[in-house]
Amino acid sequence: MTRATTHPAPMTARIPGSKSITNRALLLAAAAVGTSRLRSPLVSADTVAFRTALSDLGFTVAALDHDEVWEVAGAGRGPTGSSAVWCEDAGTAARFLAPFAAVGNGRFVLDGSAQLRARPLRPLADTLTALGATVTTEPGGALPMTVETGGLDGGTITVDGSLSSQFLSGLLMSAPLMRTPVRFTVHNLVSRPYVNMTLTLMRRFGAQVTEQREGVIEVHPGGYSATDLTVEPDASTASYVFAAAAITGTAVTVPGLGHGSLQGDLHFVDVLQRMGAQVRIADTATTVTGGDRLRGGFCADMGEMSDTFMTVAAIAPLADAPITIRGIAHTRLKESDRIAAVAENLHALGVATDTGHDWLTVYPASPTGARIACRRDHRIGMAFSVLGLRIPHLTLDDPSCVAKTFPGFHQELRRLFPLSAPVI
Ligand SMILES: O=C(O)C1=C[C@@H](OP(=O)(O)O)[C@@H](O)[C@H](O)C1
Ligand SMILES: C=C(OP(=O)(O)O)C(=O)O
């Protein structure tokens, strides 16, 4: 006998575009010959900072159709002249625009918020210096950074990718504008799927780039040509609505994210599946359906999708056994020390944790309400807001921190879950 099971009809979430694709495409389009159009770009603090920085470097980016399309007039080269660029809080802006400045011609000063100034940049400064640019930074290799350059020859570059993959992505994207071929050898690379995204988008803009073998990448001179690109919804952002479905026994579909996505963070749904949710990835949409119980009792390596580890950690107290997340040492160097920030907030909610240099264990609990300390980290704010769907009296000390990647986050959570979304 078969038992009929009923599934809730999926709600459709409105997830804005990928930050990582938007900021890569902006840079590649500026470097290309011709005019490119980006459809459905992310419009948030990180991407507006990137767009403004490109304008300050002399490139024209026009917002059309109420920001539905960003049109970029490519110059076929790096920036020229003398300018100052403000990267705000955006790691991708500092790490992608410093090499782009270095393949230009002139004097460029990059700076950003106190939060961004505290994040590592030294491997990039050292590599650009080795390639022939004159680079000055604050002691320790931090912003503000001044780059004086007449363009770069290529050659052989060894990159340490243990702190961030963004150094490698930034250098790769500017390599086709160097005068000779560049051969990269990469060690200890974290967040590898973001480098795959970089290589795919470089090829889409016409670059000649080959990966000889794991960790050895060759880029040929020849620049980029303009293209039109539709930006996928952001998979890291989608993690919040997928997690919300998993803990509320509802179903949420994100259209536009499916097989063939450029974003490694879509694998976050594999962790939800281990927690007992049903996951269906189709060609152009992904649906997560929550069950009546959340399972724990496993250890997940989230090093390749570390922007989503806080989403798992925040809902983990609701699981029936402990969950350990490992491979996340580099998340201590992001908008906040994310392992410490998650543990601190879970403790405030009455949840026990253990932590180590690169791991965190969260124990089952019945969390009580608390005021979440966001540390100006958008992902702390969004991840704990999801937990707020299941516990009363959860508030954020800084709800506006979500603007870095999803200014409309609280409205969308309330639209999807009008009865249980926390009153922020
Ligand atoms: O290249 C990118 O677009 C990104 C790479 C990742 O950083 P790390 O390489 O520092 O882990 C990720 O955390 C960040 O949000 C975006
Ligand atoms: C780490 C992040 O951002 P970035 O490094 O691009 O500032 C993030 O969005 O979680």
From TrEMBL:
Q: Which InterPro entries match?
A: Enolpyruvate_Tfrase_dom (IPR001986), Enolpyruvate_Tfrase_sf (IPR036968), EPSP_synthase (IPR006264), EPSP_synthase_CS (IPR023193), RNA3'P_cycl/enolpyr_Trfase_a/b (IPR013792)
- So where does phosphoenolpyruvate get bound? K19, G91, R119, Q166, R338, R379, K404
Involved pathway(s): Metabolic intermediate biosynthesis; chorismate biosynthesis; chorismate from D-erythrose 4-phosphate and phosphoenolpyruvate: step 6/7
Q: Which residues form the active site?
A: D307 (proton acceptor)
The entry describes its oligomerization and partners as: Monomer.
Give start-end ranges for the coiled-coil region(s). none
Q: What is its main location?
A: cytoplasm
Keywords recorded for this protein, A-Z: Amino-acid biosynthesis, Aromatic amino acid biosynthesis, Cytoplasm, Transferase
Q: Which reaction does it catalyse?
A: 3-phosphoshikimate + phosphoenolpyruvate = 5-O-(1-carboxyvinyl)-3-phosphoshikimate + phosphate
UniProt keyword Chaperone present: no
User: Of which family is this protein a member?
Assistant: Belongs to the EPSP synthase family.
Can you say where in the cell this protein is located?
Cytoplasm
Recorded protein name is 3-phosphoshikimate 1-carboxyvinyltransferase
Q: Which GO terms describe its cellular component?
A: cytoplasm
GO terms (molecular function) for this protein are: 3-phosphoshikimate 1-carboxyvinyltransferase activity
CDD domains associated with the record:
EPSP_synthase
Q: What top-level class of enzyme does the UniProt entry assign? A: transferase
> Which Pfam families did the record assign?
EPSP_synthase (PF00275)
Specify the superkingdom. Bacteria
The answer to whether the entry has keyword Transferase is yes
**Where is 3-phosphoshikimate annotated to bind?**
K19, S20, R24, S164, S165, Q166, S191, D307, K334
The Gene Ontology biological process terms listed for this entry are:
amino acid biosynthetic process; aromatic amino acid family biosynthetic process; chorismate biosynthetic process
What does the function comment of this entry state?
Answer: Catalyzes the transfer of the enolpyruvyl moiety of phosphoenolpyruvate (PEP) to the 5-hydroxyl of shikimate-3-phosphate (S3P) to produce enolpyruvyl shikimate-3-phosphate and inorganic phosphate.
